[in-house]
Amino acid sequence: MTVGIRDVARAAGVSTATVSRALGKGPVSDALREQVEAAVRATGYRPNLSARRLRSQAAQTIGLIVADIRNPFFTAVSRAVEDAAYQAGMRLILCNTGEDAEREALYLRLMQEERVTGVVFAPTRRTAERLRPEDFPFPLVLIDRTGPPGGHDGVVLDNVAAGAALVDHLVEQGYSRIGGLFGSTSSTARERCDGYLAAMRRHGLAPQVRTVLPDAEPAQGEVARWLAEPGRPEALVVSNGLILMGAVRAARAAGVAWPGGIALAGFDNEPWTELVEPGLTVIEQPVAEIGAQAMGLLFDRLKTPGQPVRKVVLSGRLIARGSTGRRS
Amino acid sequence: MTVGIRDVARAAGVSTATVSRALGKGPVSDALREQVEAAVRATGYRPNLSARRLRSQAAQTIGLIVADIRNPFFTAVSRAVEDAAYQAGMRLILCNTGEDAEREALYLRLMQEERVTGVVFAPTRRTAERLRPEDFPFPLVLIDRTGPPGGHDGVVLDNVAAGAALVDHLVEQGYSRIGGLFGSTSSTARERCDGYLAAMRRHGLAPQVRTVLPDAEPAQGEVARWLAEPGRPEALVVSNGLILMGAVRAARAAGVAWPGGIALAGFDNEPWTELVEPGLTVIEQPVAEIGAQAMGLLFDRLKTPGQPVRKVVLSGRLIARGSTGRRS
DNA sequence: ACGCGTTGTGAAAACGTTTTCATAGACAAC
DNA sequence: GTTGTCTATGAAAACGTTTTCACAACGCGT
User: Fold this and answer.
1) A208 and chain B in contact, CB less than 8 A
2) Do B150 and B136 belong together in one domain?
């Protein structure tokens, strides 16, 4: 039925071993190599990667496990990861967990069964805490979210500093009743909250924190409720792009303009944050570099398994726009 | 080193065949099945999927090949495809081509070598034209873009109708000098252009068409140039979300307000199109359904290989917003 | 008591490669 | 001329499963 390496061997008048070597990097005379290549063209042979993987024990595959590819942060990171992977001759298996610990476990098990070369993973806080390196036969690089210190390689934003930077900026612009709305599932959101709290304390201001599932709809609901309350904040710091979108929606729906009605500052410099008047103040994450660094860490560990665990901490960049204009 | 099925068999005191059957669906007595399950737990056995695939000739893998996962249309579709795939117990291999025909060919070859169960593919026009079913040993479902009639199953938008609908809407709102800016690489863009042209003709208006690489930067540049010309249009129809973003950017940069300065209408109801004042008029595509239908077609063809080629044509929905407000 | 299908099991073949091992030949050194 | 070190090659083992095949044990109708 399907043409295999033995068909090629027969057509070229050589052994299967020689075909394998000619196609790979083994030592073969130029004459035979050409014969083999001709035979490959003649037969239309395509190697069977499952067989190759089984025999050579090298999957040449990396797994990418994120909460939701529709989150533009993960979209951008995944693109960088994919580029690096294919550049290294590896394929990418994509998994969306929807912030669900059970699916995380399921996919991690799947990765073991695939015998993948490595995994890039953005875990929920719950999973990150019980992630033990010795349970995984492959390098596991954490992105965006981080686990207990010393566990796995990872690349994250300096979330505490970023959270504080937003507060500092708002204070500088004349705001003092600053609320914080953070995602409930990730260590990242918690760190950003920590930064927020530290900065508020430093400025002698009273923090108001709420948490929410990190998606647009829950965030919109929570902000709508918040805006309707009597002592509502003058400014809001939120912990990611989806929540920011929910907040914008809620403010629009409530007819609250900004920065007049409520100042808004968040994370992720998505294209639309510049476009929605008068522009949203955000911390820009170096998304492409996060993905590239993650793959870098992964390849390094493959090359030098014994090396100490490394965490790359990247800095965000504050982009001030109209949504945090000076308080009048 | 790594624990295999024979280790489990030894631990359970049975043959490897029995282990395989106990884990799969073969007939095994309850007693032995329990013994096997215990042995699996005890040994921490994880099946090797490469070996399983090699032997059973069922890859349980579907490939997804798109231009760029960062295009929100593809992001949303891919999420739907992934959901359907994992629900059916299959994994997803993701590939970005960047609208490059060479990479498309590369990835299609990769899919053959992976012996995938099926592929969902959004080809460039160039590739779509030379896509012959007999070259592929697996079902290939085209999304968004379409090939020559009768070639492959596919699910697309009714692009001609959608392109015309935007023109009709603009005419109704009082515009007559309506330009069209379309992507240069996809059949989709061409069809939307056809719809635009037909509608313009029907209304007795003179069309002005330009094409551009379907990404935000090229589009922004083209629109900026266009706006600077003397006989510039009063309204612009563009063929996808990225181009729309470029157009908005260019209008902003040129200080041209809308709908006053230039009316804007495009495709893809991304969240930000509602948020950027006064809202952008777009054709909404049923992204989730496109992905789901594609997988449906794929599974149908696996079940009934001989059935005639099917093309599912879905309708877009016009969402009128402020960007095409009545011409004053 | 006999044949006969059914069911559960194990031995061994098969899947399509890569890799190990053995060997034949070429060439250099003594 | 013998020995030794290469290099290119082929035969066969190996990778870890599933599947085929053979067979024993069992219940059933005659």
Assistant:
1) no
2) yes
pLDDT for res A1: 65
Q: Residue A204 carries which DSSP code?
A: T
Is B54 a domain residue?
no
pLDDT at B1: 64
Give CA torsion, residues A216, A219, A224, A226, to 10 deg.
Answer: -160
Shared domain for A119 and A84, answered yes or no, is yes
| Whole-angstrom distance, CA of residue A290 vs CA of residue A310 | 14
Q: What is the pLDDT of residues B146-204, one digit of tens each?
A: 888 888 999 999 999 999 999 999 999 999 999 999 999 999 999 999 999 999 999 99
Same domain? For A75 and A213 the reply is no
Residue B170 domain-assigned (yes or no) = yes
Contact positions of strand D to protein Cβ (< 7 A) = 7-20
| DSSP three-state, residue B318 | strand
- Could you give the number of structural domains in chain B? 3
CATH of the domain at A238: 3.40.50.2300
Q: Is B50 an interface residue toward A (CB < 8 Å)?
A: yes
Q: Phi first, then psi: give them for residue A162, nearest 5 degrees.
A: -65, -45
Per-residue pLDDT tens digits for B224-280:
999 999 989 999 999 999 999 999 999 999 888 777 789 999 999 999 999 998 899
Residue B9 lies in a domain: yes
Contacts of A314 (CB under 8 A, 6+ apart): A155, A156, A157, A158, A285, A286, A289, A290, A293
Cis peptide before B137 (omega within 30 of 0): no
B128-145 residue pLDDT tens: 999 999 999 999 999 999
Q: Tell me: do A273 and A182 sit in the same domain.
A: yes
> B247 contacts in A (CB within 8 Å)?
none
